[in-house]
Amino acid sequence: MTMAAVQIERRPNSRRGLRGMDRIYELAQPKESKCIWLTSFGPNMVWGNQEPMWPIPPGALKSAATPRLESLSEPKRNLIGGLNRPAFVYSCGRESVILKVSPFAKQASATGRVDYLSNHKRPPTEFKEDRREHTFSCGRQSPIWNVTDPARKAAERERIESLARPKTPHREFLPAREVAFPVRLVSLEYRDQKFGSNQEIETKVSKAAMSSSATPRLEHLARPKSRPDGPFREPMWPVSKSARVATATPRQIELAKAKSVSDGYLPARTIEWPVSKAARKSVATPRTDELSRPIIRATMDHVQFNPDAFIVSEAAKKARCSARIEELSQPLQR
Fold first, then answer.
1. What is the number of alpha carbons within 13 Å of residue 230 lying toward its C-beta?
2. What is each CA distance from 225 to 204, 216, 233, in whole angstroms?
3. Residue 292 C-alpha from the chain's centroid
4. 3-state DSSP assignment of residue 289
5. Residue pLDDT tens, the chain, 334 long
6. How far apart are CA 31 and CA 19, in angstroms?
7. With 0-12 CB in 10 A as exposed, 13-18 as middle and 19+ as buried, what is 18?
8. Composition of the chain by helix, strand, coil, percent to 5
9. Euclidean distance between CA atoms 304 and 35, whole angstroms
């Protein structure tokens, strides 16, 4: 049988018309093999079970392991001879990972090497420190170091005294006036510090301000903005005769037109439309039938056995392209 005689059997589309549980049952089926009798290899396998690919012979089931297999199957020996610490030392919830020290380790004496390694690192001989090492160390109250006696007895200069004075406000600066507010809203410390323990906090108002009267302009500005109570117009009101007889101008008619679509606009076609009788009784031409047939191509399982699959024919080697193909093959010049 030649390769041309082998045809691929097309399966019908079984998904059409299946809904609900029928579709779920179809999807639950195991995957089928795509190989055919010509390219099949190995035994017939069904996916989704626990059976081995190849059957195990009875001799293999009854055979005994060799000494080499037995030695390889033994687990690795624990050379430590047991755990040197409990398994929960580094587990969550332990207070400390410090191990218990045996009494022999407490009575042992350190070797010379251990004593040498326990010494702290010393600075080089040429190192000169500016101040004591514990000046900026943790736990010190202040980083200030001791002041020498000449610095304590030195005389102050005018520049230092001017820099030491606090910044004063401007000569025309006026502090904020005290505003009258209840004494209960002020803390006792603030009242005692600023006004004294027996003095009330209040603003002093002059007699002229207490006996003065507002001007008409101030009274006018002090009035709240008056707004009439609504509704401002009845929902129905009479229309005058002139308004009923009036006609719109051409400009008003033009502005009142709704926005129209552009010329040549076709609205969206409905989802369902009636099919004409001529379309229902029409018969497809032979050319339409020829174009509607699907292209059947051989699979790679068949092509791999064809020695002439990737050989270029002599006619294709001698063919010449048309002028249009040469024009399209030219690169785009920018």
1. 3
2. 33, 16, 21
3. 49
4. helix
5. 444 443 434 444 555 567 788 888 888 887 776 666 666 666 666 666 777 777 888 888 899 989 999 999 988 877 766 555 555 555 555 555 566 778 888 888 889 999 999 998 888 888 776 655 554 555 555 556 678 888 888 888 899 899 999 988 888 888 877 665 544 444 555 555 655 554 555 566 778 888 889 999 999 999 988 877 776 777 788 899 999 999 999 999 999 999 888 888 988 888 888 899 999 999 999 999 999 998 887 777 777 777 777 788 889 889 988 999 999 999 888 7
6. 20
7. middle
8. 30, 0, 70
9. 14
Which residues, 6 or more positions from 183, have their beta carbon under 8 angstroms from its beta carbon? 191, 200, 201
DSSP secondary structure string, 255-278? HHSPPPPPTT--PPPPSS-PPPHH
Specify the 3-state DSSP secondary structure of 328: helix
Token pair for 240: 């005058």
Q: What is the pTM of this model?
A: 0.17
Alpha helices by DSSP H, listed for 246-322, are: 250-256, 277-281, 286-292, 300-303, 314-318
| Greatest Cα pair distance in the chain | 130
Residue in the structure block whose two tokens are 């191509």:
297
CA-CA distance, 218 to 299, in Å (whole number)? Answer: 101
Report the distance separating Cα 305 and Cα 39, nearest Å. Answer: 10
